[in-house]
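Can't paste images in this forum, so I'm doing it all in text. The chain is below; anyone willing to post the predicted structure tokens underneath?
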Amino acid sequence: MDLRNVAIIAHVDHGKTTLVDELLKQSGAFRANQAVAERAMDSNDLERERGITILAKCTSVEWKGTRINIVDTPGHADFGGEVERILSMVDGVVLLVDAAEGPMPQTKFVTSKALALGLRPIVVLNKVDKPDAEPDRALDECFDLFANLDADEDQLDFPHLYASGRAGWADTELDGSRKNLDPLFKLIVNHVPAPKQIKHQNEDFRMLATTLGADPFVGRLLTGRVESGKLKVGATVQALSRIGQKIEQFRVTKIQAFRGLQMRDIEEAQAGDIVSLAGMSKATVADTICALAVDKPLKAQPIDPPTITVTFGINDSPLAGRDGKKVQSRVIRDRLYKEAESNVAIKIKDTPGGEAFEVSGRGELQMGVLIENMRREGFELSISRPQVILKETDEGMMEPIEEVTIDVDDDYSGAVIEKVTGARKGELVEMRPSGVGKTRIIAHVPSRGLIGYHGEFLTDTRGTGVLNRVFHGWAPHKGPIPGRRAGVLISMENGEAVAYALWNLEERGRMFVEPQEQVYTGMIIGEHSRDNDLEVNPLKGKKLTNVRASGTDEAVRLTPVSRMTLEQAIAYINDDELVEVTPNAIRLRKRYLDPHERKRMSKSL
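Text version of the structure:
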């Protein structure tokens, strides 16, 4: 069968997973009466809840005698490590661009990787049926983007389609017939070359592992594209590391290929196809699985380095162990190293004491997703404020710089520019209109300046602004950047918070806790209205007397509390504060608890 391998890349919420749904339906991958969930490729619970793709996933469709292997890639820069590996498996990319927003930072980031590998893009202008769509402008911006990324003449001569993924059509003309996605299928078959590996069918077997999975019945599963040769079930192969060191020799127990959304067992893997192998115990991502006669590994795609680090520690608060079952540092360590094995964009380092671990990654969202997965598995953790990874060079200390793209209402653009280019040491690169009453601002800002800024940004823009960021490069250290301006309200007692006390404290700032919620000494229960920290007593009840007077028995009416998401909490804290994460709660607290104080408080609670 004729074969094509293609990846779909796009910015967050530009509709690539919805488009893949329609490709699956129109190719006949589902039965006519089969119930299919919306965004079928987003199989992970967090992906469905947040509406973003986190893990790259493969699927396969057949169209008029051609099998098309499609890879759905993450749309957020924090998960770019997934995309960088996946691109080595495909021979072409479909670049999906929102016709209203145009190319966004993540589009630029991934496209630069694809163009560097020599892949020829197909541009699909999605959501052209939206009232604010400007497909011609978006198409011009795509061409400018490719030119800025040093695309060659073949890549600049890219075909394009107009489409609506939700409505299930694509067309070569903006006012065409709009029937179905056949024009996209046809363009993929005609424009994307067949895998060149097919010519190497008679050579020794070689495959580069790009993703790692696990099956409760089969065990470890490594997925990749077969670079040369054929492989049958039961054959004995070896795994080589990046430097050519032999890791293990094993017998292949299963070969699986993607057919629709299912993995099907096949007897033989052929060059050019994307398959999963089982049977190994040590081999991992970026290793070469090959015949015993091969002694040189395949070249693995380099991965961009992490830019921030967060310290994961045991939960040592007085409320530790009440929600979660996995609280020991040994269990946390095993889970983190297991994550680093499958996610090459994450690096783990033990701290000298052995009770905390420095986890380095791409951004706050990537860390937030890892922590959220761990708390759902029953872990309890204490998380530090993210720290930016600095680099020492001959030119001095260098720090990571991010390109920030902001779409904001004209009324708020002044406040945003002042914040970004002032205290946060950013440099304005571009500012232009981006629609009726909207302004697009592009700036280069130190990563340090963006930690904790998103909440402030939403306040400044009354929740209407959209901020996207992507790693830009390294630049000389820009000096101190001020952190959070407001102080916090810290509990000075242990027990259950009282409504009357919280009501009296409301004039001091906004609250993070509700009545009857457990609090302890050192726990942050609110944000102070001034810039200093303040110790308060949230347990102080109303004094009872036998004298009745008008006004003394008024009902206590509390302002609704501010509940932070995990990412907001991590970005909110200062260096002397921690986020306490359990399966049922996210709390903030000060660091200064000593062991004797913790023991005493545990007894009182």
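The CA atoms of residues 323 and 583 lie 6 Å apart. DSSP finds 15 helices and 35 strands in the chain.
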